[in-house]
Amino acid sequence: MSALTQASPAAAGQTGTTVLKVEGLTVDLRTSRGTVRAVDNVGFEARAGETLALLGESGCGKSMTAKAVAGLLDPIADVTGGEIVLNGTDLAALSPRQRRKFAGPELGIVFQDALTALNPVYPVGTQLGEAFRIHHKLSAKQARAKAIELMKRVGIPEPESRVSAYPHQFSGGMRQRILIAMAVALNPRLLIADEPTTALDVTVQAQIMALLRSLREESDMAVVLITHDLAVVAEEADTVAIMYAGNVVETGRVADVFSNPRHPYTKGLLESVPVNAERGGELNSIPGSPPELHNIPPGCVYQSRCPMVQEICRAQRPELLPINDDGGSAGSHSTRPATATALPVTVRAAACHFSEELDND
Amino acid sequence: MTETLTRPQGTGTLLEVEGVTKTFHVPKGPSGNSRLRALDGISLSVERGETLGLVGESGCGKSTLARTLMMLERPDSGTVRFDGQDPFGMRGKELLAWRRRVQMVFQDPFASLNARMNAGEIISEPWRAHKDLYRTSRERDARVRELLHMVGLRPSDAKKSPQEFSGGQRQRIGIARALALNPDVIILDEPVSALDLSVQAQVLNLLNDLQQRLGVAYVFISHDLSVVRHVADRVAVMYLGRIIETGVTEEVFDRPRHPYTAALMSASPKLDVTGAERNRIILQGEIPSPLDPPSGCRFRTRCWKAQDICAEQLPPTVPAPEDASHAAECHFPLETIKVRNPDPAPDPAPAQ
After folding, report:
1. Of B249, B273, B287, which has the smallest distance from its Cβ to A259's Cβ?
2. Could you tell me which residues come within 8 angstroms of residue B249 by beta carbon, excluding any fewer than 6 positions away?
3. Considering chain B, what percentage of its residues have pLDDT values greater than 90?
4. Cβ–Cβ gap B205/A285 under 8 Å
C-alpha cells in the first residue's frame, strides 16, 4: 500500500499546500415538501498541484457542494453551516459582492454542458476577454489579444480568426476548451470542474482531460473534479471524497481507496464496474436505489442498501473517522468524538460503524 | 404460457445487413453539401441468441443503423434480411408479424414512457397493435404480471405511473414492454447510459439473465466500452457511417487492428490504480462532419498511419491472420498492439 501512495508525485514548491479547505459544509434546499438537506456536514481539502475528485451518483450532493464553494447556489438553496476557506479566507462568511472578487482570480469553474454555459449571442472572444476587462480593466482591444492567447493555450486552432466566432460554430470539444480557457483566464488557485467531459465522446474526453492535467501542472492549480465515473477518478485524481446522500462516506488517496475500500458503498461501486467481472457473468450490483432527499433515514445514510447493516447503523449516524492503514478504525464506538473535525484528505477515513470488518479479498 | 417463453437457443443467422446506405437531405452546411450520408455501405449480421455490440462516437450512424434494423428507415441501397426475408418488401399481416419479432429499448427511461399511462398499460400497449397475441383481458393481465416479475418488479407495480419509479425501474418497464411480443431480437440503444453505476449493474444483470432464459438476440448500442466488453459476444466499431472493424469481442478489444479502434480503446479511462503506465493514444481533432466526409479512408484525417493511398482509395476489408472473422477496413492494419500492455506502441500518435 505504501508503495502505491508513493506513486503519486509530491513535487517541490507550492505543490501540496492546502488551497481550499471545506469544513462542516451544510446546504439546505427549500422545497414544496419542506426543507431538505442536500449537503450534510461535508469536509474536504484540495491542495495545490493535485486533483481531488468528488465522486458520487446523481443526487448525492456533489454538484451542490461545488456550487456552494463557487457561490453559485440556486436561490432555493442556503448554506446553513460550515466554512469554505480558500487561501485563508472563509468564503461562506462573505457577502455576495465581496465573493465576486474571488470569482476569476482565485477560483474558476468549468461546467458540464458548454453550450448552455456560454452565451449564444456574443462571440467567444468577448466572453473570454470579459474577465480581463472586469478584473484587470483592460481595453476591448487588449482583452481580445488576451482571448487569442488563451485560445492558443487551450489548443484551439486558428485562434485569430475564430475569436470572433459564436459558440454554436464550435464543436462540443472545442466549446469545452473555451469554457476551460475562461475558467483559467486569470490563473486561479482553484479550478472546479463539474463533470467536464460527461457530454463528450471518448476520444475527445481524453483530449480534454489531458488539457486539464497540463494546465494544472503548468500553474500548480488545485483541481476539484466532480464526476460519477470511477475510471476517470482512477486516472486523473490524487485524492477522492466519495459522497452518498449528501454525506462524504469515504476519503483518501485514490490508490488506497480503490484498492482497499473501507466503506461498503465504495466497495459496492467498485464491484459494479463491468470491467472487474467476467464477460457475461453476474455483476455485483448494489440492490435498491439511493434514498430521496426528503426521506433520508436517521442513522447511516447507506443502511437500506448495505449488506452489513446492524442495529447500530439504524440508530446512529457513523462519523467520518480516520482508519489505520491495516484497516482498523481509529476509534471504538464508545470513544468517538461528538463531531468530526475536518481531516486532510490524504488521511484515510470512512463513515462506517463496521469499516474494519469489510472484507476485500 | 411459459412454453412460449423458452425459445430454443438455435443457431444460425437471424439478421443480415449487406451494403446498406442511407442518405438524408438536410439544410446546406458550411461545405455547401446538403446530402448527409449516415450509413455508407454497412454490412453486418446478428446470430440467434447472441449479443452484437455496436460501438462508435456520436454522429457515426449508430442510431440510423438501429432505426434501419427496426424498419423505421428504408435504406437507399443494399439489403436487410431477417430470417432470409426482406422486411422492406412486406405488407399488411406479413409485415405486422415481422414487426413483432424486432423490438427496441430506448436510452432515456424518462422520455420513453408515456406519463399518462400506468406501467401495466405501457407494457400491454404493443398488444393493441398485435391483437391476436393475448385475446382476453385476463390473459393480458396475467401476462403483464408475468412480465413485471421477469424484469424484477412487483405485480402491484402495474397500477403505478412512470413518475413513481426510479430510473432503473423505468428501464425495467421499457424492457418488459420490448419483451411483451416475444421478439427474436431487441435493439438496445444505450440502455444503461442514463443510469447510475450501481443501478446500471442491476439492469445489465437483468438483460443477461433474460437472454439466457429466452434466447433473445441483442443489438447493444453503447459508447461505454467497458459495458460492451461485458455484454457483447461480437462487436462492430463504426466511424462516419462505416463499420471499420468487427470481430469477437475479446479479439477486437485485446488486439485491435484498426487504428481508430486502438485509439478508442486507449482513450477510454481504465479503473486501474496500480500505477502501471499504459500506452495512451490521444487522437488529434474530432470526428469530421458527415456532410463532408474525407475521401478514401474516413479516418485518415485523424490517423497517425495515414499515407497518400488512404486519401485516394477506400481501404479493403482485411481479415486478421489468426482469425478471419476479425476484420478491419484499413490500408495499414495494426500488428498485434495491446492496449493494456505497458510496452510502448510501435507508432504512438504524436502528442499535442
Report:
1. B273
2. A279, B53, B228, B229, B232, B233, B234, B235
3. 62
4. yes
Residue B55 exposed, middle or buried by CB count within 10 Å (0-12, 13-18, 19+): buried
The least confident of A95-109, B211-225, B327-341 is B327-341
Instruction: Give the burial string for A276-310 (b: 16+ CB within 10 Å, else e).
Output: ebeeeeebbbbeebbbebeebeebbbbbbbbebbe
Residue to substitute from A166, A238, A259, A279, interface B, most B β-carbons within 10 A: A279
- pLDDT at position A114 is 80
Residue pLDDT, tens place only, B180-226 = 999 999 999 999 988 888 889 999 999 999 999 999 999 999 988 88
Query: Are A104 and A188 contacting, i.e. CB atoms less than 8 angstroms apart?
Result: yes
pLDDT of residue A12: 35
Q: Which of B166, B205, B273 sits opposite A283 (nearest CB)?
A: B205
**By the 8 A CB rule, do A125 and A133 touch?**
no
Evaluate whether A212 touches A223 at the Cβ level (below 8 Å).
Answer: yes
Distance (Å) of CA B109 to CA A10, A23, A200, B185, B192: 45, 37, 21, 20, 9
pTM score of the predicted model: 0.84
Strands (E) in chain B, as ranges, are 13-25, 35-47, 51-55, 77-82, 102-105, 185-189, 217-222, 234-239, 242-248, 317-319, 327-329
**B198 closest CB neighbour out of A234, A269, A275:** A269
The Cβ of residue B188 has, within 10 Å, a number of other Cβ atoms equal to 28
User: What are the backbone dihedrals phi and psi of residue B105, each rounded to the nearest 5 degrees, phi first?
Assistant: -120, 135
Q: Which residues of A touch B267 (CB under 8 A)?
A: 202-203, 205-206
Neighbouring C-beta atoms of residue A5, cutoff 10 Å: 14
Minimal Cα–Cα distance from B287 to chain A, Å? 9
Q: Supply the ipTM of this predicted assembly.
A: 0.80
B41 phi, psi to nearest 5 deg: 80, 60
Taking an 8 Å cut-off on Cβ atoms, the answer to whether B199 and A289 are in contact is yes
Calculate mean pLDDT across residues B307-328. 92
pLDDT at B76 over 50: yes
Of A290, A255, A60, A296, nearest to B198 by C-alpha is A290
Check whether A356 has a pLDDT greater than 50.
Answer: yes
Closest partner residue to A272 (CB to CB) among B197, B249, B267 is B197
State which H helix or E strand residue A64 sits in. helix A62-70
Inter-chain residue contact B205 with A282, CB threshold 8 Å: yes
Q: Domain locations in chain B?
A: 12-26+33-232, 256-329
Of the candidates B18, B184, B163, the residue with the CA atom closest to the CA atom of residue B104: B184
Contact between B286 and A255 using a beta-carbon 8 Å cutoff: no
Query: Hey, are the CB atoms on A269 and B197 less than 8 Å from each other?
Result: yes
Question: Which chain A residues have a beta carbon less than 8 Å from that of B352?
Answer: 155, 207, 210
Nearest C-alpha in B relative to A206: B267
Domains of chain A, by residue range, sit at: 118-186, 261-331+343-357
pLDDT (average), residues A2-14: 39
> How many angstroms separate the CA atoms of B206 and B172, rounded?
8
B12-26+33-232: CATH architecture: 3-Layer(aba) Sandwich (3.40)
Q: CB–CB of B246/B235 below 8 Å? A: yes
Share of chain B above pLDDT 70, in %: 90
Torsional sign, CA A328, A225, B106, B299:
negative
